[in-house]
């Protein structure tokens, strides 16, 4: 399983929990992750080569390059550009 430690700042790593899916889903789902933070964030991200489904349980992330917030439920295809993610410090997402 990939580690968040290679690409994320330390304060972001502390909020991540990564889970392996059950055996029946492993052909379709690489992993699940949960991220919680009470700190404001502004971190760069890079394309990871796979689609994502993200549920924001609190304030959605802001993407300055797109000048928009993600919706409470975000479905992302394969992103082919780096971007920043900003948070007001009220982050809880799956």
UniProtKB/TrEMBL annotation:
Pfam families: DUF6597 (PF20240). InterPro entries: DUF6597 (IPR046532). It comes from the Bacteria. Residues 18-94 form the DUF6597 domain. This is AraC family transcriptional regulator. It comes from Candidatus Bacteroides merdipullorum.
């Amino acid at each position: 399983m990939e580690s968040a430690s290679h690409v994320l700042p330390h304060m972001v790593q502390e909020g991540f929990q990564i889970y392996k899916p059950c055996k029946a889903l492993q052909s379709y789902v690489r992993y699940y992750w949960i991220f919680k933070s009470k700190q404001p964030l502004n971190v760069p991200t890079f394309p990871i080569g796979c689609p994502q489904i993200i549920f924001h349980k609190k304030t959605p992330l802001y993407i300055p390059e797109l000048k928009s917030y993600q919706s409470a439920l975000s479905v992302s295809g394969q992103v082919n550009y780096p971007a920043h993610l900003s948070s007001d410090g009220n982050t809880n997402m799956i």
